[in-house]
TrEMBL record:
Protein name (record): DUF1811 family protein
Organism per entry: Caldalkalibacillus uzonensis
Lineage summary: Bacteria, Bacillati, Bacillota, Bacilli, Bacillales
Entry keyword annotation includes Coiled coil: yes
Cross-referenced Gene3D superfamilies: Hypothetical protein YfhH domain, Hypothetical protein YfhH like domains
Coiled-coil parts of chain: 2-29
Amino acid sequence: MTRMSEMSREELEREMRRLLAEARKKEQAGFISEANILEQKFYMAKSYLMDPAEIKIGGTYRVVGEKGIFTVEYINGVFAWGKLDTSPEERGFPIGRLEEVKEN
């Protein structure tokens, strides 16, 4: 099996579609934990389609599936590391799970 980091854009997009479809099937069948794993793989694939340089150090983001606002402290590969405002613990998330918080 090819690593996501070695896949072309087309391969990653195809893998994302496959993972979402499989996750939906698992969820409908009641296999929630398996669906969650497939969803995490989806976000990893999405992360490889993104440019980590577009994630701002000190920027605030919503994390899909998490409560609170995430502040990025540093980037390592396709992972953003920082803290959610709901916890003092440092956490890492694939950048594909981040949604920028729009300022008013």
